[in-house]
Amino acid sequence: MAEALKGITAELYEAMIAVVDERVKEIRVTREDFSELKGIVGDLAHSHNQLREVVTELAQGHRELVQSHNELREVVTELAQGHRELVQSHNELRGAVGELAQAQARTEKAVANLAHQVGRMSDTLGYGLEDLGEWVLPAYFERAYGITGVERCIRRFIKVDRKEVEVNLYAEGKRNGEAVVLLGESKNRIGRTEVKKFVAHLRVLERVLDKPAFRFLFGFWAHPSAERLARENNIEVISSYQLTR
Description:
- This protein has three helices and six strands; from the N terminus they run αββββαβαβ.
- Helix content is about 65%, strand content about 20%.
- It has helices at about 10-145, 190-205, 225-230, and strands at about 145-150, 155-160, 165-175, 180-190, 215-220, 235-240.
- The model is unreliable at about 115-120 (pLDDT under 50).
- A hairpin with a 2-residue loop joins strand 3 and strand 4.
- Strands 1, 2, 3, 4, 5 and 6 form a six-stranded mixed beta sheet that branches.
- It starts with 9 loop residues before the first helix and ends in a 6-residue tail after the last strand.
- It has a domain at about 125-245: Trna Endonuclease, Chain: A, domain 1 (3-Layer(aba) Sandwich), CATH 3.40.1350.10.
- By secondary structure, it is an alpha/beta fold.
């Protein structure tokens, strides 16, 4: 090396040293750039991995979205089927309501006819009940109330203020040796309304009587509330079944 440097001037030597220093600097810069590049490549690799994860998540999300879409389509199909069934049920219900309305109309007509027939039957039974009371009640009056001397109960018209007031079942007898007038009315079914009407009827009749009255209602059936109201107005309620006791 010393032999090689012989004949080189100091100026040349310094120039050569300067060139070598410059080259060394350039090499150092290149290494720094390489290190920086290496870091960038590492960052890119990391970013690539992150991107791949994002793409994977997007792919999974897409699959879930497709699955949700398919499920939604099935739900929509079921809803459409349900709607069709609902429309069909509505039509069937409307038809049933129409049939029910027709059946109700037929029932109302039948009930009207039945009411008419019952009304006619009631009139017939009314006379039958009155006839029954006419002959059977006298013995029951004696047995149940101690009223004697009653031969039969008859229909009678009593004049009140120049008007004739009808008594359905009328008789005269004695109770504890005292003369009494029996005023009665026959009704198939005795309710509170029948009792109230009879009370008003009695008020008119008793204005012209000169004897105490034995008041009674005679029928096939009496409502308990009607019996209570009758007792409150001193009226005996006699049901047909009692006659056999």
